[in-house]
Design goal:
The chain is mainly α. It is built from 15 helices and eight strands. Strands 2-4-3 form a three-stranded antiparallel beta sheet. Strands 5-7-6 form a three-stranded antiparallel beta sheet. A two-stranded antiparallel ribbon has the order 1-8. This is EF-hand domain-containing protein.
Length: 317
Amino acid sequence: MGHNYDIYTMSMSQEIWEEFIKKYPQANSGKLSIEQINVLMAEYIEKRNASAVDDFDGLTPHQMHLLLHYPLAEDSPLKWVAPHYESDLAAIPLLALSDMLLAEIQKAGELRLTAKGNLPVAVCTLLVKKNLIDWKYMKYVKILSEDNIPYIWPIKEYLTTEGLIKKRNNKLFVTKKGEKYPKLAHSERLQQLLSFFTARFNWQNLYGIEDDGEIGSMGWAFSLYLFRKYGHETKNAQFYADKWIRAFHTQYWTERNNPAYNAIISDIRSAYEHRFFGCFAKWFGFVKVEEIQIPKQVISLMEVKKSETLDKCFGMR
């Protein structure tokens, strides 16, 4: 990464030391003790962490630290407000479909999987026919299977990883924990689903660039903060991709006008837009997406605007 966004866990960089000496030249005079220098450094770091950073869209390093490591903390810039809108949360696509799949497995007692270990086509068809998640390539799919529909496998993975279902003899059954799960509040189940998708699910599954799923996944709360802040207006998704690059890949941002970096920056933008908006935000119902086809080109432009659902899940401090 090209930006010193986490002062709390990083070792002192040359950049910070040079800034410190510029502000406190007496620290480099040889006349101060180590203890005195440490006091000045602590003062400097505290002020630095409380200062707005342009690369973070005006957030301070401390606020970025919270968004990265404690996104729903009490003083995080992103505020979790979902418990105030319980009745509206049941319609969130990924939550509704995971509830539905769990109910289907429970109804079956033991749901027999295919020879490959996938969900039966009939169950996949049931989920798809709810039309909760729009996918532009759906018209090309002939068989509604787990392999062909991108959001079905993550739902099964979520239920399995959380211990809500288990596999035995190529059959799925609901666990004791899974039996209690539907009784939880919608906001509690949603937070559990968000935690899985942002902390344990590898986003490389959503777009095959070799980055271990970092693009889009890292700083997801920062991206939601930006989208909550600017999403009332329809914008090209690149607007948010560029802000993400500026915050977390500063070395590429500073070279954005260098033709030698065009390909890698384009790849990062594409991965970010597809993963964060095309999958994550769409599957959770946070975004309204419009794909605008460019004449005589394979690629399309992604126009995005926040939904009411986003406002009912996240506020801003």
